Amino acid sequence: MYSSLTWSHNGKVLFERQASYTQVNWPKDKGQLTLDDSLEIFSVQVEDSGDYTCMVIEGARTRNTTHKLIVEDFEYDLHTGSYAFKSNLDKTSKTNSFFPPTNHPSEFACK
């Protein structure tokens, strides 16, 4: 069993779990730690992009696992009636909205 587990996003601590408590520095509707200490992010958004690092301290030993999440914006092209990555759209086309590619959760394991 570990003595400390910490999940961070781009260096900012999101969750810290020790034997006697769990500290949460993230809105409850944004994500959670699962029972197996994986990090689950609800309704992934562009601002969730970045590096997610799990650090586990077991006695004198420290383990780190880093996962990279990339979420890209899409735009709706009124001319073609389809969605495309922002960078792939013709600059002269009219655009209507932006949205991330998924509203599904993402989950990263701490192994």
From TrEMBL:
Superkingdom of source: Eukaryota
A Pfam match: ig
CDD domains: Ig (cd00096)
Domain Ig-like: 1-66
Gene3D superfamilies: Immunoglobulins (2.60.40.10)
SUPFAM superfamilies, sorted: Immunoglobulin
Protein name: Ig-like domain-containing protein
The organism of origin for this protein: Holothuria leucospilota (Black long sea cucumber)
